[in-house]
Request: fold
Amino acid sequence: MLNNETVSKLRDMRLSAMARAYEQQLQDPYIENLSFEERFGLLVDTEWASRKSNRIKMLIKSAEYAIPSASLEDVEYRVDRKLDRSAITRLGTGAYLNRFHNIVLLGPTGSGKTYLACAFGVAANRSAIPVRYVRMTDLLHELAIARIEGCYYKVMKPYKQARLLIIDDWLLFPLKDEEIQTLLDLMEARHKRASTIFCSHYEISDWHVKLGEPLVADSICDRLAHDSYVILMSGESMRKAKGITSDI
Reply:
């Protein structure tokens, strides 16, 4: 009876993983060979691991990745892709986040930019770092509507403050003057305060043309070029190789 009450109290305190582990201990005839400290330590470890796992799952879900299952461990290092495994592994540790550096992923459609960007994001989530993923067209559309509705600064704030922001399809389509100014506002707010991952079809040297006004283009590109790790992606389209529609 006392054991049942203990399990019930653990569940009432939302210590469900600990409650399950305790029930398992009660059914284990060899558990008596362990000291109280050892048994209690196992219970705490189980609850801690469960909460950490749930936290990571929540962060991955809230990031709204295009590929939430992406993982650096599953990146394919085929010869034709010319990916630097050691560089990607180092970036996967997340040290660049502490220095507020960025990552620029460059390559044609299907080269795997989106997958790698999401994999870096998931790696950050595993270290309890929140991430926001967004396609550039969706970002600009959302902010344009926010301007009309008078809540631009409220909507922009989470993008400015995100510890890691992933912008997919960076500069894929022509921009309006107001959109370019929006990007400048965002980049200035994040410069040396947070990290951003950019997925682009175009070399950084071509971004000036896409951004139009020379002074604005220089201002944005200068903030990115000096604090970014650039990864060039090539080889046969991963979509074609896998026979699927998602970027890997």
Summary: The beta strands are 102-106, 131-135, 164-168, 195-200, 228-232. DSSP finds twelve helices and five strands in the chain. Residues 211 and 217 are 5 Å apart (CA to CA).
